[in-house]
Specification:
This protein is α+β, with helices and mostly antiparallel strands. Helix content is 48%, strand content 14%. It has eight helices and four strands, in the order ααααβααβαββα. The protein has a four-stranded antiparallel β-sheet.
């Protein structure tokens, strides 16, 4: 446009911003999205040139908006650099290896449970179980559940303290209880126990990337804010006395946010 180029990547970014193209989708130069996005950018370029010809770029409000846009572009270039480092496969794998030993999720146990309202009923059921009656039969009699009181696998850390202590040194298929918990009596059976494995690298990759990004942004923000001179000015409300040192903005300039 009058010798100033519009690049294909600008067209693609505009199409993505308008929702005509997905972030990961390739831009077809023969598509409607490409044509419409390009025509809009040509119009923007023509209007911008006309604004310069009219001297609008010398207006204070326009200069401020241009400077704001410039700052956002520059700040985004820092975010892009951080993203490149945060998504670097070597950095992600290194953090995963350094913390793999701490990522284990402990142990989980597979339990079955029968609940009773009195200790006498629980003791009687325990004797029947010790004599060889099937766990699910008594569970069905107590209306514990339709699946024989099966609780499935649960992390040991999620169990109540009483149950956690009971299963700590128990063996597979061992009966536990009766245990009194919250006014009820429970008989448990430890069906199985297993270690909860470390999540895979691919499972944790998005979270590791988020952490690397957050860590670098936080550290950079803290350092820059510490070394900078930042003043937050507020214009006092009408009729109220200013408290502390509040500078009134120059009448010839817009009030700072």
């Amino acid at each position: 446009v009058n010798g100033r180029p519009i690049y294909i990547e600008d067209v693609r970014a505009h199409a993505v911003g308008r929702g005509w193209l997905r972030e990961t989708e390739d831009l077809d130069a023969n598509s409607d999205a490409f044509y419409v996005a390009l025509e809009e950018l040509i119009q923007v370029r023509l209007f911008a040139m006309e604004a310069e010809a009219r001297g609008n770029d010398r207006r204070a409000d326009v200069r401020r908006l241009i400077e704001n846009a410039r700052e956002r572009v520059l700040a985004n270039s820092i975010y892009d650099e951080i993203d490149q480092r945060a998504t670097d496969p070597e950095a992600v794998e290194r953090l995963y290896r350094e913390n793999a030993s701490r990522l284990g999720q402990g142990e989980e146990v597979h339990l079955r449970q029968i609940q009773f309202t009195t200790q006498e009923a629980a003791d009687q059921a325990k004797r029947r179980l010790d004599q060889g009656e099937r766990f699910e039969v008594i569970a069905f009699e107590q209306n514990t559940s339709g699946d024989g009181g099966d609780l499935g696998f649960n992390p040991v850390d999620d169990l109540t303290p009483e149950v956690r202590r009971a299963v700590e040194n128990a063996n597979t298929n061992e009966l536990l209880g009766p245990l009194e918990i919250d006014g009820h009596w429970l008989i448990l059976q430890l069906v199985d126990r297993r270690a909860r494995g470390v999540p895979s690298l691919e499972t944790l990759r998005p979270r590791i990337i988020d952490w690397l990004r957050y860590q670098e942004i936080s550290q950079l923000d803290e350092r820059l804010a510490r070394d900078a001179r930042i003043e937050r000015l507020r214009q006092p409300e009408a009729g109220a006395e200013a408290e502390g040192e509040v500078a009134e903005p120059d009448e010839t300039r817009p009030a700072p946010a």
